[in-house]
Every structure is written in structure tokens, then in C-alpha cells.
Design a protein that fits this description.
Radius of gyration: 15 Å
Strand content: 25-35%
Number of strands: 5
Shape: globular
Amino acid sequence: MIIIRKASQKDAKALLGLIKGLAIYEGQLQYLKTDLDQITESGFSNVQPQKFEAIIAEHKGVLIGYVTYMWNYSIWNGSTYMAIDDLFVCKPFRGNNIGQKLMQHAKDICVSNNIKLIKWEVESNNEKAIRFYKKLGAQIHNKSIVKWHTT
């Protein structure tokens, strides 16, 4: 049985393992800079507001997927929205609607808080993810991501 729930501090180490799993899957491990202390402090400390929150999928006590998100504000819409950072499901569990359940849980959080928009990024060549997001009912907008490193 798969349990979908909000992550807690006791999940920090396993969540970091999943984040590393995503970085490996995307061939980006060399760019992963966060560590357990940062994950714990940023997402699970008593300091409010948290810098991020997470929803996890658990199977027999083992974390097998997650979605991380932050709350942001749209000046154009004049409202808060959920900004999803990552969605990841471990390979052996893909194709079992776990990603859909994680995203639905994120949507349910928004609905219960009267949040009307969720935004996230997807690589333009990630056709599988784009099909998945369209199946959810999401709209894909072509827009470039700009990064400006200050150091």
C-alpha cells in the first residue's frame, strides 16, 4: 500500500536520498549542493515560514517519491500560488500512478487553502513528463528560464 503524506523532520535524510536520486536520474549530480543540515533547517526547523515543504510517497516504511514546493506570490494575479520545485518517483514504482497521487495531494492542499494556481518547470524535451502533466490537465506554456549567477 502506498501512503501519500506531508513530509516531517524524520523524513529529511530519506528525502535527501530521493533528491540525490533525481539528480542522478537527470545526470545532474555534480550540481547538487544541498546537504542534510540544509534540508533539515530549510524545510523542517521551527523557523517560520519554511523555505520549502514536501509531500512524500511511502511504501512499507520506505520513501519512494516526493514533490517539493514553495509558496510564492504573483503580482499579476494578486495572489499566492504553489511553486513546485521537484517531482520524482523511484524507477521501480513508476507507472503506478504515484506521481499523479503526489500531484493530486499538492492540488488538494491548494484547494483547501483557496490557492488557485500551481506552477512548475519542465524541460522542453522531456516529452514523457509533458504528456503526464497534460494528462493531469495542466497547460504547458513555452517560456525560457533565465539564470543569472551573481558569483
